[in-house]
Each structure stands twice: as structure tokens, then as C-alpha cells.
Amino acid sequence: YPSTNEMQRRVLASIKLTSVRSFSAASKASAEAPLGFIGLGHMGGKMVENLSKDGRKVLVFDASKDAIQKVVAASAAGNKSVSQASMEEIAQKCSVIFSMLPNDQVVSSVTESLIKGNTTGNSFTHISCSTISPSSARRLAETHKNAGHKLITAPVFARPDGIAKRQATWMLGGEETGRALAGSLLSSGGNIVDMGNDVGAANVVKLCGNFLIAASIESIGEAMALAEKNGVDRERVMSILSSSIFDCLIYKGYGQRVSQRDHRPGGFSLALGLKDVSLVSQAARETDTPMPFLSVLLDRYVSAKAKGRADLDWSAIGMDIAEDAGIDVSKDVARNKKDVQEGNTY
User: Fold this and answer.
1) Domain architecture of the chain: domains with CATH
2) What is the pLDDT of residues 20-33, one digit of tens each?
3) Which sign, positive or negative, has the C-alpha torsion 136, 137, 138, 144?
4) Catalytic residue among 46, 150, 206, 275
5) Helical residues (DSSP H) of 54-97, grouped into ranges
6) Catalytic (active site) residue 57
7) Has residue 177 got a pLDDT over 90?
């Protein structure tokens, strides 16, 4: 069998990775113009830091004043290139606007505000890095087009630490020149995958990926419960598996979290996991695609949320799986909730 690194190399070689050189012209254009950025959560904040370090001026907005202050303060300690602005100011002053938002409804609301706030007559390119439904992406692209603007979808595979380390993979969908512009600004943060003119395609890939991650978390949790119920140390079992036949990022990262029951927030919350699994379900229904195992995941995330674990990492469904096997995880639940209360995050 080929090594894991060789397999990863083959996969990357088989998909359409857009060369950074093809974005050079777009990168040089308007290099001094400020970028807009809306949504400064764990992911958005790290993206702004990267853009700032790349020498870009960024006008930022978030519904949370604390989130704005945190990002602006980080910039003040460096090159002071990040400034607070209203959505109206961003719509008027920025020809390129990024957003990293929690769901379809918020993306729709922000789109409406940007279009309404753009009173200058100048067009803008909205680069949406949010995970939303493919149908919403296509609908919003038409909304932008009808108003004289562009929507480019750019969902990402990475947790906040991966964004900070510039190890992300971005899928780009939408009009060609807009994709080139988005690629020029995101390429320093990792790999760019060109999904072509269909703005929905990038989000299809993202939902497929997140479905597979959720399924992996469920499988890991079931395997760890089986090991523990048979009197075998679950952490040792996971270490053996993730260093041999499952030597890859997802099984290493989530294997550690599930086997150690370390579900501190700061990466991807269980609430967002439920949202994304629900989006997969919506896309499946809209296209008559049966996904039997998806039903298990939906119930699992609903159950975990009902138990008050929405703020934990989405790997926290591992504790639900253990509970179903009759394993007492009360101390682990209390420890993780204490981490939330004390702000202990990844």
C-alpha cells in the first residue's frame, strides 16, 4: 500500500488546484484598497489576522463588540491595518468584502444590508466563506448579480488553528474573474481548489466533507465505547489505530478528542455541527439522494444539543455514544462544561 503522504499527494494532484501564478494580476490590482470583513468569530478573526499580516488594510464588522475589539487590538500590536467600520461603510468603501458567518439566514441578512448600504454605485465582490446550502448560494448569487455585484463562495476545510498556520483548503465557486480575485487573496493561507462557475459546487464539496467528518466522529466514538466495554484502554486503542491504518488528520485530531473526552470549544461547535448535518440533509432531500447513515448523525447531534452540549466541540457526540453503552461520563461532562465557563479553549 502507498504511504499516507503519498496517498495525500495523489489526491491533491488529482483535483484541480489553481496555480497561485494565475492570480498574480488580480493580486496586483487594488493592492492598496481596503478589504471588508464581516464575521469575526474563531475562523473569521484568524482570517483577518492573516490578511493583515499579508499587508492588507481591513475594515471589520461583527455583531459582537468584544469580537471587534479583540481583532482590532491584535492589529494595534502589529501593523495597525485593521479598523472597525459599519456594514454601510464597508459596502461603500470596499470593492472586495469577505464574510464568515454562522448560517444561511445571517448570510442572507448581511447580503441585504450590503446591497442596501452600497449607495456609491460601485460594484463589489462578496467572498462568502460560510458553510451554507448550495441552493442558498445559488439564490444569493442571483441577488448579487441583479444588484450589479458578484458573489463568490469560498468555504474552507480547516479549524481556527489551521487557518492561523495557513494550512487551509479553500473551495472557490462563482464567476471566473471573481474566483481569480478570491484566490489571489486566499492563496497565502493554503491550497485553492477551483470548483468553476457554479457557486453552489464549493458548498457541495464542503457539505460532503463535513458529513464524512461527522461520520468519522460517530465511528470513532462507537469504536472507543466497544474498547472500553471490553476492558481495553480506549486512548491506547486510538493511538494504535491513528498511528497505523488510520494515520490521517481527521482520525488523529478527532480520535484524540473522543478517546480523551476533551471537547473544549474553540474549533467547531456542536451547534454548528448540527447546522451542517442539517444542511446535508436539506441538500439530500432536494436532490432525492438517500443517505441512511445521515439520519443517525442528525439524531445524535439533536440529542447532544438537548443535553446542553451545544457550546462544546462537535466531537462531544462521543460522550453521548459512551452513555448509550452505559458508560458513566458525568465527570467528563462536568470538566468540559467547566472549560466552557472558564474560557479554556483550543
Assistant:
1) 4-196 (3.40.50.720), 204-342 (1.10.1040.10)
2) 434 444 444 466 78
3) positive
4) 206
5) 65-76, 87-93
6) no
7) yes
